[in-house]
Design goal:
Keywords: Endonuclease, Hydrolase, Nuclease. This protein is α+β, with helices and mostly antiparallel strands. It is built from 14 helices and 17 strands. It starts with 5 loop residues before the first helix and ends in a 28-residue tail after the last helix. 21% of the residues are buried.
Length: 565
């Protein structure tokens, strides 16, 4: 055995030899030898080293987890703070936007160019595509067989050539026939495609021409100040008022050609349009984003300013859109629920009637909206944020109608007069006077602008009373269901609460049924009319028509009327 004396001779350093001895095995003299068993002290020292290493690793792992948790908390805190800043910035941006509704809106033009509604015909040339490509005609050279050589002729090649030539001619002829058929089909499909294109172009030109014709009619009617056309065009102008996208766009317009005036009933933005917080703050100890409330007084003032700005901007756009308007009546409402009744209501918060001449003197970019409204003698709710309603200066419902001065039709009634001898105008005024005698307000409309309405009745004393429209029919024959449908349409168009149809004759059973199904139509036939005249006007009248015994006198159709005297 070779002894480890090399350390003494300086061949292996002593520290290297000590390290070698720590290995499980070491090589000496070309053999592997087992390391001697460690002593108890060495084993304990080794175990302590392993325990310290394990403890160090555990401390490192815990420190890394703690650092990761701290980084996660820091990131969460940073995210919360950033979210807080973003939400605060949104609230501040919204508040600035609401404060600048008027000034920013003035930068947009409100003029409406009706000629821009016209369409230009599109130029779409015909594209034949693959149908324009003509297939190559079969050439004889593709079918012609090669002529035989001299040797081939001596061996009977000439006969075979003639046979091949006959077959080639037949094949060429068949190919020509197929090509001609295919080309004929191509030409048919090309003609059909061109015809379809020409038809589409014709239809397109016709549609453009028809559309432009309607636009020309619209322009002509607008220049003639047709009531419905002006209302439609100004409705378009209202839709173009530069307001935030979340603001309501509900509005109604009525136009009076005689006064060159419009009355607008418009829905204003609700209270929720104004943010009730100033911003947000992050409370790190509770990990909460808490709102910073906006003072109630500040919220109310911001909403009052918003109502004033929207109203002024709307008036500006309407006057600019229609240079022929002389005045505008404006009623601003808000859609709300009454906290006391739970019922949905439409209270009016602002009302004014302004002349163009006065409005043109305003420098809107420099006014204080609330002060400007006082200058215009506007009636504004004392507490708009509380939705405290006001009574409008102009009644929107009544402005839909053109009224005439009332005449005393009753004074024309002699002793036992015949209503059928009255003129239609006198009969309409008589009907008006009946309702006036019943204690309600009533007006007779102009015949040129009545739209199927002869009179208007308003019962202001009734708790739930609404505007009613009246049609007066001085007829000698039965009033059919078509008249009920006509009145129902007028009720919807005028947005009236009820409709009343008065006639000197009688109603068919289907008319009574239709009125009952509608629910807001009342029918007054000749019998009831004479009773109302005697009851409220003190006149005993007759109706000189022959009523058939089959004519019913009420919605139940139970009693038959006798012939009138």
């Amino acid at each position: 055995m070779i002894r480890l004396r090399t350390a003494r001779r300086g061949l292996i350093p002593s520290d290297s030899l000590a390290a070698l001895k720590q290995q499980p095995e070491f090589f000496t003299g070309g053999n592997w030898m087992a390391r001697r068993s460690p002593s108890p002290n060495e084993s304990e020292r080794w175990q302590r080293q392993q325990a310290r290493e394990l403890e160090r690793q555990q401390r490192a792992t815990a420190a890394a987890a703690k650092a990761a948790d701290r980084a996660k908390r820091d990131q969460h805190t940073a995210d919360q703070k950033r979210d807080t800043e973003l939400r605060t910035a949104e609230v501040e941006t919204r508040a600035r936007q609401l404060q600048a509704i008027l000034t920013s809106g003035l930068r947009h033009t409100a003029r409406i160019d009706l000629t821009s509604l016209k369409r230009q015909p599109s130029q779409q040339p015909f594209n034949p595509g693959d149908l324009a490509a003509v297939a190559a005609q079969p050439a004889w050279e593709q079918f012609e067989p090669p002529q035989p050589g001299m040797v081939s002729r001596l061996l009977g090649g000439q006969s075979r050539y003639q046979q091949q030539l006959a077959h080639a001619r037949t094949a060429h002829q068949q190919a020509m026939q197929a090509w001609q058929a295919a080309d004929a089909d191509r030409r048919r499909r090309l003609d059909a495609a061109r015809s379809n294109h020409d038809e589409r172009v014709r239809q397109h030109l016709a549609e453009v021409e028809e559309h432009n014709r309607h636009v020309e009619q619209l322009i002509t009617s607008y220049r003639a100040r047709d009531r419905k056309t002006v209302e439609s065009v100004l409705g378009l102008a209202l839709n173009q008022v530069p307001l935030p996208d979340d603001f309501p766009r509900r509005a109604e317009i009525t136009f009076s050609p005689q006064q060159a005036q419009i009355v607008v009933r418009m829905q204003l933005p609700g209270r929720d349009a104004v943010p009730t917080v100033r911003g947000y703050k992050y409370v790190q100890t509770r990990d909460e984003i808490q709102p910073v409330p906006r003072p109630t007084k500040e919220t109310s003032e911001l909403y009052r300013s918003l109502v004033a700005q929207v109203s002024l901007l709307t008036l500006h756009n309407l006057f600019e859109a229609d240079p022929q308007l002389a005045s505008i009546g404006f009623n601003g409402h808000v859609d709300a629920i009454n906290p006391g009744t739970g019922q949905r209501e439409y209270p009016c918060l602002i009302s004014l009637n302004v002349e163009r001449e006065l409005f043109a003197q305003l420098v809107l970019a420099q006014v204080r909206p609330e002060v400007c409204l006082r200058h215009l003698n506007a009636l504004v709710s004392p507490h708009p944020y509380e939705l405290e309603p006001i009574t409008p200066i102009l009644d929107f419902d009544l402005t839909k109608f053109s009224f005439v001065d009332g005449m005393d039709a009753v004074s024309t009634l002699d002793s036992r007069p015949d209503l059928m001898k009255m003129s239609p105008t006198e009969f309409e005024h008589l009907v008006r006077q009946i309702f006036e005698a019943m204690g309600v307000e009533s007006w007779t409309t102009e015949q040129n602008y009545d739209d199927g309405v002869d009179a208007v009745v308003v019962n202001r004393s009734a708790l739930l009373g609404r505007l009613s429209i009246v049609q007066a029919k001085r007829y000698k024959d039965a009033v059919g269901v078509s008249h009920i449908r006509e009145l129902a349409g007028a009720i919807e168009e005028k947005k009236a609460g009820h409709g009343i149809l008065v006639t000197t004759s009688w109603f068919t059973p289907r008319s009574w049924q239709k009125a009952r199904e509608h629910g807001r139509i009342e029918l007054i036939d000749g019998n009831r009319l004479t009773y109302l005249i005697k009851e409220h006007l003190g006149k005993d009248v007759l109706i000189g028509i022959k009523r058939p015994r089959t004519a019913t006198t009420g919605p139940d159709g139970a009693s038959a009327a006798t012939a009138s005297s």
